[in-house]
Every structure is written in C-alpha cells, then in structure tokens.
Amino acid sequence: MTELQHLDLDALSELKDVMEDEFQSLIETFIVDAERKLAAFRVAIDSGNADEVGKVSHSFKGSCSNIGAPYLSSLCKQTEDKGRENDLSGVESLYSGIESEYLIVKELLIEQIN
C-alpha cells in the first residue's frame, strides 16, 4: 500500500493552506480525538452494542475523511454499516484493521507537522 492510499496528500496540502498556523493544532486535535474514539469503539464492541459501534464509526469516519485519510475512512464506513445492520460479525477484525491503519495515518500526519 502506498502513502497516497493512507493519506490524500492533495487534500492535506489544501488543508495546510487553509489552516496555515493552525494546521499543527488540527493534526494534534485529530490524534487526541481519534484515540478517544478508538477507546469508545473498543467499549462498544466489547459490550456488543451495535448501535454505538455504528455511531462511533460514523463519527470517526467523518474525522478521517476531513483529515484526508481515505482508507481509514473506508474501514470506518464498513463498521458503520455493520452497526446499522445490527450485525457485529467481523467487526473485531475490522476494528483491528482500523487500529493498524490509524497508527500508520498518525505517523504520516506527525511527519507532516515536523
């Protein structure tokens, strides 16, 4: 998988231009928020709460899309759909993929601000 699939560098560049000096703060806020959402996601999965899985996935999907992380957003969409369908089969595997992809995206985003 190439870096472009993890991050949409064109979208990220536009975001940098728009945010200017606030870009670093935006990235840092995304990271803090993402880690909270991942924790909430874990709780929802562990409790078997499909509705909450869908809600957390939907929220995280939007954040990922806004920051320019299309693959991560796509994984969240899959779990969002599972939650809406009240079908948690395979969600554990999807969550593992989301966690792994998030770590890659986080590293790449940090590189953008350093």
Automatic annotation (TrEMBL):
<dbReference type="InterPro" id="IPR036641">
    <property type="entry name" value="HPT_dom_sf"/>
</dbReference>
<dbReference type="InterPro" id="IPR008207">
    <property type="entry name" value="Sig_transdc_His_kin_Hpt_dom"/>
</dbReference>
<feature type="domain" description="HPt">
    <location>
        <begin position="19"/>
        <end position="114"/>
    </location>
</feature>
<keyword id="KW-0902">Two-component regulatory system</keyword>
<feature type="modified residue" description="Phosphohistidine">
    <location>
        <position position="58"/>
    </location>
</feature>
<protein>
    <submittedName>
        <fullName>Hpt domain-containing protein</fullName>
    </submittedName>
</protein>
<dbReference type="Pfam" id="PF01627">
    <property type="entry name" value="Hpt"/>
</dbReference>
<keyword id="KW-0597">Phosphoprotein</keyword>
